[in-house]
Design a protein that fits this description.
The structure is a homotetramer of 311-residue chains.
Chain A (H helix, E strand, L loop, with lengths): L4 H11 L3 E3 L5 H4 L5 E4 L3 E9 L2 H9 L9 H13 L10 E9 H7 L6 E4 L20 E3 L7 E4 L2 H26 L9 H4 L8 E9 H11 L6 H17 L1 H12 L2 E3 L1 H11 L13 H12 L10
Antiparallel strand pairs in A: 2-3, 3-4, 4-8, 5-8, 6-7
């Protein structure tokens, strides 16, 4: 359970004080505000604030004075058009601010998405909590044999138990030593900014993260993808469900055109046209490398391929 | 008067529908929402949406769960500390979205500030309105003789009248021809994306502009400065008054440390220390160039110098 | 002819002085350095500097110490893999700096690409030249009747002649008045920053523009596209030819996966799978809107659709 | 010694192959290319590529065709003017690409500077080396008692020895376990992306980092500052020396106006003016908080204060 009693009380007190505003309000998002969506064993995602809704995307695209007389269905059509034709700026007009608690190695993947605002808990100034990510049994997998970066088969019971034992005891020992080093009882106590270097990468950190909807979609496309590392994908999928409640029309367009869509190369498109005319196209006659051909076949069959978007 | 009856009705209708939210609310900002603050002869600034308030800056700086038990005075002290020591990320946690109507040549200066989101009215898709900026009599000035970029003395009456006559008639003629070229009455009608090239740089355009508070402060520091071109300064000063109502503590810190503050070079600091010890420092013994020395004297005397922040 | 004798002499003198460097050198790019590629009637694109080559992309992707023992064919394969799987950061490791002379209305479209560095000629400080873009006869087209933003049929001779006459005489008159207003002969002379507002949007400006290869590819995908406005496309196509000489492997991958590739929605992909199984899919059974279906058919037939990427 | 024989051979081979180029060349920078500047116990900074020199800054500021006839002294004056008046865009026209090996906790501070391009060694794909940062004796300090984030007095011998013993043995054990977990000898072997979570924050990673000169100056101002954490400061100071050789005029201006300069608040400026007129100003009559007054006194006396720029 990631939250203390005091923290829960703070959240309840925030949710107990509705106020009046003239701004655009997303009812779906109001239901999420401040609440902690649990992720992994000690992590969470909390919506702290948001700006805009589906109508705001359209209003900016039209540079209009108000909501005008457009219907929800007009708005939905416009949003799909914008998404389909890569008009990204209207989606930048929505903004979300999250409070996230996450393992340090996940934070390191996350921060590569540079077009966002971040305030992280400072381990120079403060003492980190004794909380470490330990994978659930069903996520302890071996290195993939078909993909150089990623996981393959689940570990057997014995090996999994040994791994968990190592992760647990090393984290405990490192944290004990961290505490010992910074303690000033009977001694000086090492500076926090130095002592933290003894902590392993599965320790939890937390931050405020603010991003616009266009860049959030880009994050979700890479990190909610089947080939992203499971741990960051768990966060991305939690955020995805929140976004679906916040801007349902934009989310629908994103699902259809990005998450569920595919990009085909000039060669793949050419093969496709030939196939639709009845030609039998093979790896040899495709003009693609064997790897590209495998990926192309996977797209046509609906079975995901083995490549990964990085990490 | 920049707004049509229909536009005013839309704004009133938006202001007539308060809704409930659990988000942070800035009362000072709610008063501004949607209203058109007039700028120049046909322009305006309208607040369309905002995110965060003074407390949100502190909450992000502390990476805290709620507002905690901190007092407003604690928050003010923290905000001043953050501003003084160039901790910019907590200020990035506030966001503002504006609808702005502005002359095209002002838009060209404005857009140089790249860390913002923009949706501009499309002259490929739509027809621009017949509205041109004509400077008020008191802004018609000659090229500065002490500064290569900027204005000097006011024009005399006769010259001013001639200038206004030119600006007015050229704008009218160019717009007449624009309308004629795109008209498809009895002919094909030139494409809008081509016809617009006949319009002069004082025609009005409009856009939605969204920016975080840190980058907005940067914009204001350069564009509300005495050396910025008057026309963009008029917009910056209008926005500055809005910001003062939105986040009063952050605005106060910004005024004290940025707008009202100065940056001294190593040489200037050295001179200052010598002067405070009673030494008579002159241009010759200062180690500065004549120009730097003049700027230094201007800072000490409180009389603004002649240099300009670009444009 | 866009360059003066003096400017040509400067360029020749720069090209006459090869120097030694230990950096990566792209022979294809050295041939372009400083030379003016003419675009439109008075514009140009000049390569001023560049950083990196195809091998540098691979070196960064591998975070390696040198070029290692990899072959050119290994590098080509890696580059195609990176492009196919949207690994954008290695492409960011190449950089190009251009000097561009372009009509002001093209500059306004161009500047929307924010992730770049720009230094533009200042009309506050300097006097603009008397040079205006006048479209060639074959680019004077009517507003498109199938697309709300874009051009359709060519104008007839008479209408084209009238348009050119308007553009020419309005530009001349506006410039004459610009010169008259700033002149201080026998009068004060209006400040340049004010006088420029009388100049139409087809006047030429110039800037230094620096961008990394990933963001340049994004620019080219939108602006070298058939639906971009012709005038900016002329610049994009000139730059594209330069890029092909600079980083041939990256350019090849970009052509295959971006310029020549397509993105299909989840619905389109589903239709495709059904069609490949022999099912007759129609607009009605496709699950797509009529407009999406038309675009889908255009992709399969190879005939470009009517939608446009904005501008 | 951070480099292997093979790596040294690669570097020597790169330095042994000068080529011809028409681009701007900085002789000071050519001397640094590819060489490893050692930082901390196992880290380094290597210049991989660069674009531009002092003259390129001026050329962009003037938007000129070549180097023209300006003298080095004209260029120096222009660069100082640009720096003094916060004209940042000409400095963005220079670019540097570094290969850096650094402890993970330093990488986490570094990556907060978002306006840069990064390719980091992937611990999903590759196995990290057994190299950990162990502070030198003279950097093992206690938590500061005057500053909530930072170091104070050096640790005594006994405590220092205990700290080093902990850091060393925990790092060794964690790495042994990392190797054991990923080993597939006689078992499956845990996926690398999971096993890495057991590694402490003093393990070394490496990346390619590319940044423009303006943003590099911003990085150096914060990270070469006396209040930055020592470990990142060690990198910043190494880079600073390289920059001084690359663009000596820009570096000189940066030193005078940023590193050696100070920013004074409106209140501080007011106090200063009163003091220069002979008034005795005290904390009480200053209008500043006690903390601000102490910082002001520190500036005037030349003794650095106790505040820190974050971390």
């Amino acid at each position: 359970m990631p939250l203390s009693e005091e923290q829960r009380a703070e959240i309840e007190s925030l949710r107990a004080r509705p106020r009046q505003t003239l701004r655009a309000v997303s009812e779906g998002m109001e239901r999420h505000l401040y609440l902690a969506h649990e992720v992994l064993d000690h992590g969470f995602v909390r919506v702290i604030d948001y700006m805009g809704d589906d109508a705001a995307i359209c209003q900016a695209a039209r540079v209009s004075y108000g909501k005008g007389t457009r219907s929800v269905s007009d708005d939905r059509g416009l949003i799909r058009y914008l998404m389909r034709h890569w008009h990204s700026t209207p989606f930048e007009m929505c903004e979300i601010k999250l409070h996230v608690k996450l393992p340090l190695f996940v934070a390191r993947q996350w921060i590569r998405h540079r077009t966002a605002n971040v305030n992280e808990y400072s381990a120079r100034y403060s003492i980190l909590d004794r909380e470490f990510y330990l994978p659930a049994r069903e996520h302890l997998a071996a290195q993939s044999t078909v993909n150089n970066q990623g996981r393959g088969a689940l570990l057997g019971d014995e090996e999994a138990a040994r791994v968990l034992e190592i992760l647990k005891s090393d984290a405990a020992r490192c944290y004990d030593h961290y505490e010992e080093m910074i303690s000033d009882e009977g001694k000086q106590g090492l500076a926090r900014e130095l002592a933290r270097m003894n902590l392993p990468a599965n320790i939890y950190t937390q931050w405020y993260w603010k991003v616009d909807l266009h860049n959030l979609f880009h994050f979700l496309r890479l990190r909610a993808d089947a080939h992203a590392q499971y741990e960051i994908r768990a966060y991305a999928e939690t955020i995805a469900r929140i976004v679906a409640d916040w801007v349902p029309a934009a989310w629908g367009a994103f699902e259809d055109y990005r998450m569920g869509g595919v990009t085909l190369s000039a060669q793949a498109l050419d093969c496709l046209r030939r196939m639709l005319k009845g030609e039998e196209v093979t790896a040899e006659t495709s003009g693609m490398s064997p790897r590209e051909w495998r990926e192309f076949e996977a797209i046509l069959s609906g079975i995901p391929g083995q490549e990964s978007p990085g990490g």
